[in-house]
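We modelled each protein-ligand pair independently. The example shown here corresponds to the pyridoxal-5'-phosphate entry; the chain sequence is given first, followed by the ligand as SMILES.
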Amino acid sequence: MSLDDGGGESAEGRIGILKESDREVYELVKKDGFEGYHKGLFGALAEADVEVYELVEREYERLGNTLILQAAENRSSRAVLAALGSVVQDKTAEGFAGARMHGGCAVVDEIERLAISRAKEAFGAKYANVQPHSGTAANQVVITAVLESGDKILSLGPGHGGHYSHGASVSFTGKFFEVDNYFVDEESFLLDYEAVRKKAAEFGPRLIICGASTYSRVIDFGKFREIADSVGAYLMADISHISGLVMAGAHPSPIEFADFTTTSTYKPGGPRGGLILMGEAYDRKVEVRGEEKAMLEHIEAATFPGMQGTIYLNHIAAKAVFFKEALSEEYKSRQFRIIENSRRLAGGLAGLGYDVVTGGTDNHLFLVNVANSREGLTGVIAQKALEECGIVVDMVGLPYDNRPAGIGSGVRFGTPIITRMGMGDDEMDKIAGMVDAVLREVVIVSESEYRINESFRDRMRGQVRDFCRGLGAG
Ligand SMILES: *Cc1c(COP(=O)(O)O)cnc(C)c1O
């Protein structure tokens, strides 16, 4: 495997890919560029900085030789990488298409408009803001757009699936707002909508946040809407993890239920970045800090100059490329396959005696309580031992888990990348067997220390590498 079959195409190759797969974005990138710059884009890195070049190459090798079962990662297309690495990155612009603070924006205005119209189409939304630098930034924009400092936020508790940017005390969202949490049911680990309703009535939040990083079941956005209406709160749905499924119709959409829908754009397989969407009510007039204006105007003012300065136009070009991909049948059917693979792998592990949290999954991820599965095993040991053997997962704390952060009782498995590599039922069964083989081989020393037989480890690593290569992992 060489860099050339993946992200590191020669410059002409990279731009050629964009030309083939996305003519519209290609034309725009081309207009803003100059040919010579593209020649040897990746070669230029090798020439100028062999240290970084070699690190990039090592990362590329790692991606190709390991089995990545992480739920929060995906693999972007070469066309997305080409747009990210284009000269559009050099353009400085503030403000929104048609209302910039800088000159020379005619082409990038078209790029932003294209990204917006494709995002709206992909999500069935009436409004899209493609400017947030990340999912966290998208949440910050919404929160500062509609809340005044000291206002109340009700969100899913950390450790139960809520994200830091939903008001964790360590995040700015927890420092300037009054935050309370709802939790999953203690027995079933499922969202308990009655408990959310009660908490909302007692607390009286101005904003309710739903959406999670470690929840494997369907989220009922309609129920959250009813609860928000019952207390006169805004509803924000953060679908960072499931937005690919939502675009494909493999998970119900929050667009018409939530006032604001936010997502990261890399988790569903696009470039790093964030997105804010709204449904029919995007131009409803609301008052914030004594100022009445349309919701979109509040959102845009909070984006710039509220939260961000100049925008990442190369990322916006790459978002445009990605939303076009997301509209394809290949992408949509892959999202259903991701869920089938997730169910198959969870079922395989359950069959081998592992405690799958909530008993299964409806989406791209599932959690295993490894501490319940084997005496003495913890999340951190499982993660480290698996990684030594070439299998990459994330340890997680589980709801009502009283182990210290950094140890955890759980592991989160996700299937976006292995599905992207073309894997199906047979591979899921093999992966379940490999995970089990590693976890059975581990000799537990303490909560965070373990030993593993070196020849077993080397054999396993080779087996994983062959398994990935057999599928053309690059
Ligand atoms: C990953 C994630 C985010 C953060 O996105 P970044 O782009 O990494 O900032 C926000 N919310 C949820 C629910 C997430 O899972």
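Confidence is low (pLDDT under 50) at residues 1-9.
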